[in-house]
Amino acid sequence: MQVSRDLQQELVLLRASFEQPAMQFPEIWLRDNCQCPKCYMQQTRSRLPHGWNYLNTAVQVQQLSWCVAQQALHIEWNDGHQSSYTYSWLKERDFSPANRARYLRDFYRPEPRHWSGKQFALIQREFQYQELLSSDEVLLEWLHHLAVYGVALIKQAPLEADVLRKLCNRVGFMRRTTYGDEWSVRAQPGASNYAYLAAPLPLHTDMPYFEYKPGVTLLHTLEQSDSPGGWNLLSDAFHVADLLRQRHPRAFQVLCETPVDWADIGNDKELSFHNIWREPVINLDANGQYKRINHSIPQRDSHFSVAAGQVRPWYEAMALFIQLANAEACTFKTTPGDVLTFDNLRMVHGRTGYDDTDRNVRHIVGAFVDWDIAFSRWRVLRHAQGYCK
Q1: What residue spans in the chain does CATH classification 3.60.130.10 cover?
Q2: Where's the TauD/TfdA-like domain (predicted)?
């Protein structure tokens, strides 16, 4: 969409007076975002919808002027309407490539940085539980690190039942699932989920069978097995996808395009459930960036609703993905009072098997927070601390 020549020249002069490059604004966008009371409701910070019932897509600027006293651009449109835009408002919404990149990075969501297993020690960050509860600055640092690197460890949390709820409430609120608000991971007879066994737990993402999959996983270690097992495994699946794209592009394409049936059937307390979601292992957004990874061997259904000829190529591609994920995994063992937090849309996690006896118990309590809620809190904190507008 092109900016009209007259309007573009006027904005060039406007920015030149501030010794900055020219701003870019499509005419129809300016008309759609008129800030007058007839078009915009200040108390809700949103445009009024009635104008769209008669939207004139051929609207053009008839005359424009710059008010030095008000630091505002005034426009008269050929449909008789008048609009005003302050310089600060325009500057934040400039369509130039640099400003759009700044907005996406500093306000929408921070750009993820992918890492290999060997780099884990370099990106690892620890936060103190009490500081997260008392300091908004530390809370922002934790959310930012979690968004960029996908993992962060919280230390010295009390061995109490309400630790995860307090953390989630600092962000917003817990995400409830078919397993409740919180869930315990420990060996138990008649387990309803493979994670509730003492056997090795392969790398996976939690709950790929949900269309709206929980975004942030929090795991609070209450008791840790003294056996040689029980070690955490963690791998950055976005980095794994990078390697697959570089080394095996055809396999990468297969895992991006082949829908897989993910399912969870069972009972928990008084709730019976049968969850199904069909989606490829690697999910990309409209710009080809990673959006979500789906992977869980126990939760991959025996139904595979694709053409028979697509099956073997998918298995071959998935075998490569799992090999790379295991090769790139880091290992560590949490201690009582640790809360491991990670991006469930990005990280694949697991653990080694362990001995489970009356004297050797491993007990982890888990909970979720949705990324929508976490990013909302991140933006509010950044605004309050002067990082962005």
Answers
A1: 117-384
A2: 125-367
Q: What is the pLDDT of residues 366-386, one digit of tens each?
A: 999 999 999 999 999 999 998
- Alpha carbon of 45 to those of 25, 205, 362: distances in Å? 20, 37, 50
Do the bridges between strand 126-128 and strand 151-155 make them parallel or antiparallel, or are there none, so unpaired?
parallel
Residues 6+ apart with CB under 8 A from 58: none
**CATH code 3.30.2020.30 region(s) in the chain:** 5-107
| pTM, two decimal places | 0.90
Q: Which CATH architecture has domain 117-384?
A: 4-Layer Sandwich (3.60)
Q: Does domain 5-107 have CATH number 3.30.2020.30?
A: yes
With vertex at residue 120, the alpha carbon angle to CA 117 and CA 126, rounded to the nearest 5 degrees, is 150
User: For the residues of 187-206, what is the DSSP string, one character each?
Assistant: --TT-SSGGGSSS-EEEE-S
Query: Nearest-CA neighbor of 186 among 355, 362, 368?
Result: 362
